[in-house]
């Protein structure tokens, strides 16, 4: 083994260690948020019950939930154990990012793109969630790697590896079909060079189609259910404006993460300029060098991003724009690779080092904010469900009552352990209980929400105000003042001041 290979493998190993540290540090500190609890609920079921629930309630294929079901049987439902399952695909993905960069560009591109992937705030944010995101990320990278191998060597082993990767990818999430569309577009550039590769790519698609027939049936059943639903639109979600906002927010998240407010001009504006110039320089140099692989990266970045954003703005309009980056997490490797290629094209070594350090410094700020729970554009991820129930239990008596919205998180954590109080969400049941137990104190867990007034109905709150006295309030996750002003300007209504509040009432 040459010294060069030893150095490269050592760097990749160090990056894997760094990634493992970033992804597992205080992995169990935050409570599960709603979608994570949903993942657990589906995964607790047997296979056929799981399929029935997914058809009735969800919009994702069953593969991740099946794997999570097996994982829960082995390790239980602790936050660390379940989130660690999502860490594993990220660690493996580092190797594929490095190999794609190395095999199709250069050793330096492979190492630099792996470094950027490891330090990406989006990868750290979503790589620690009990969701399918990182599994789709890994299978997408596998499909891309074997796709390029198929184009270069057209061997049957790559046909089967590619077909299997595509099948696994589509059984993980439907939006990744856009990556396969991108591969088809790339193939158009290859027609004159290697007809045999095209035949074998078509063969791989046929194999994947046969393996995916059950998934196709499930997909159309979900689409049929969604078309009959009349869910309220999310803010800034539909039409041309929805597409524009989701697209711009996804690009912003790829560049800076979701724990760095965009009004940090000193970081964001220079960062935008640098990243834009790198991409433009990469395009110009690739054109001059007739390097098709760079444009292949851009296609795998742009097509899935546009496809998913349009889908979330038309078919699934109830998805807020803040969810767009998580649904396109599987294209971040191509963002990192394209960025690394553009930087590698720069001849001035000092400028190259400065740009790398500048970008890493911005991402470090975003990561520090993440670990210190600051500047979360999506404060839902910070909601301290465990802490609130623990605080209520610290002085609640056996006959006291805790009420809240009918949320997955509260129901999950209340059922997870024995609390000394009763917990209800139905207003009729709450009223009946309080009338039967006039000595009971009322603990109301109020959750800040954007789209509708949070908590109990106005009539019920009027009754509480007449019959009870508010004794104390404890607030959790204070929302930044400037953040509130921006939300008020965009949403045309008063935003909530805290993500959660615990209100204690007595007779």
Walk me through the structure.
The model has no long low-confidence stretch (mean pLDDT 90). The chain has a 5-stranded mixed beta sheet. Helix 20 (408-416) links the parallel strand 1 and strand 2 (422-424). It has helices at residues 3-24, 34-43, 47-57, 63-75, 79-104, 107-119, 121-126, 133-153, 156-170, 177-188, 195-211, 213-228, 239-256, 265-289, 292-314, 324-327, 332-345, 349-371, 385-395, 408-416, 427-436, 458-467, 481-491, and strands spanning 401-404, 422-424, 442-447, 469-478, 498-506. Helix 8 packs parallel to helix 10 (177-188). It folds into 2 domains: 3-377, no CATH class; 383-506. The protein is 67% helix and 6% strand. The chain is of the alpha/beta class and 507 residues long.
Task: Explain briefly what this protein structure is.
By secondary structure, the protein is an alpha/beta fold.
Cα shape? globular
End-to-end C-alpha gap: 78 Å
Give the number of DSSP strands: 5
Strand content: 5-15%
Number of separate helices: 23
List the secondary-structure elements in sequence, H or E: HHHHHHHHHHHHHHHHHHHEHEHEHEHE
Side-by-side strand order of the widest sheet: 2-1-3-5-4
Structural class based on helices, strands and sheet pairing? alpha/beta
Instruction: Please tell me the total number of domains.
Output: 2
Q: Please, what is the average pLDDT?
A: 90
* Portion of residues within helices: 55-70%
Give Rg in angstroms: 25 Å
Largest sheet: 5 strands, mixed
Q: Which stretches are poorly predicted, pLDDT < 50 over at least 5 residues?
A: none
């Amino acid at each position: 083994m040459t010294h060069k290979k030893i150095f490269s493998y050592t760097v990749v190993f160090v990056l894997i260690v760094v990634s493992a540290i970033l992804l597992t540090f205080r992995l169990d500190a935050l409570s599960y948020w709603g979608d994570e609890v949903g993942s657990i609920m589906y995964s607790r079921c047997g296979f056929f019950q799981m399929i029935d629930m997914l058809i009735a309630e969800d919009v994702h294929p069953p593969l991740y939930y099946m794997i999570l079901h097996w994982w829960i049987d082995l390790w239980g439902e602790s936050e660390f154990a379940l989130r660690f399952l999502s860490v594993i695909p990220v660690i493996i993905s580092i190797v594929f990012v490095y190999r794609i960069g190395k095999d199709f560009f250069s050793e330096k591109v492979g190492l630099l793109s792996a470094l950027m992937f490891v330090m990406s705030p989006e990868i750290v944010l979503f790589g620690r969630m009990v969701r399918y995101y990182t599994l789709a990320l890994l299978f997408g990278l596998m499909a891309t790697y074997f796709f390029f191998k198929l184009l270069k060597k057209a061997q049957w082993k790559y046909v089967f590896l590619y077909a299997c990767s595509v099948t696994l990818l589509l059984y993980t999430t439907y939006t990744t079909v856009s990556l396969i569309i991108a591969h088809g577009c790339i193939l158009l550039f290859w027609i004159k060079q290697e007809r045999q590769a095209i035949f074998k790519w078509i063969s791989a698609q046929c194999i994947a189609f046969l393996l995916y027939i059950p998934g196709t049936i499930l997909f159309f059943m979900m689409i049929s259910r969604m078309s009959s639903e009349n869910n309220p639109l999310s803010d800034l979600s539909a039409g041309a404006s929805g597409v524009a906002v989701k697209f711009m927010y996804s690009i912003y998240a790829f560049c800076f993460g979701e724990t760095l407010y965009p009004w940090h001009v000193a970081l964001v504006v220079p960062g935008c300029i640098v990243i834009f110039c790198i991409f433009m320089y990469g395009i110009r140099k690739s054109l001059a060098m007739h390097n098709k692989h760079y444009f292949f990266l851009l296609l795998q970045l742009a097509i899935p991003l546009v496809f998913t954003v349009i889908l979330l703005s038309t078919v699934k309009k109830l998805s807020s724009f803040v969810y767009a980056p998580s649904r396109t997490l599987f294209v971040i490797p191509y963002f990192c690779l394209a960025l690394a290629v553009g930087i590698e094209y720069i001849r001035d070594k000092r400028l190259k080092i400065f740009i790398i350090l500048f970008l890493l410094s911005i991402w470090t700020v975003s990561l520090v904010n993440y670990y210190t729970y600051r500047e979360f554009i999506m404060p839902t991820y910070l909601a301290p469900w465990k802490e609130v129930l623990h605080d209520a239990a610290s002085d609640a008596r056996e006959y006291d009552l805790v009420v809240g919205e009918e949320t997955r998180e509260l129901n999950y954590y209340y059922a997870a352990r024995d609390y000394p109080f009763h917990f209800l969400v139905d207003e009729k049941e709450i009223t009946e209980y309080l009338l039967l137990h006039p000595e009971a104190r009322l603990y109301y867990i109020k959750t800040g929400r954007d789209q509708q007034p949070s908590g109990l109905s106005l009539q019920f709150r009027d009754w509480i105000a007449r019959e009870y006295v508010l004794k104390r309030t404890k607030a959790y996750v204070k929302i930044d003042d400037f953040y509130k002003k921006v939300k008020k300007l965009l949403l045309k209504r008063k935003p909530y001041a805290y993500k959660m509040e615990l209100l204690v009432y007595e007779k």
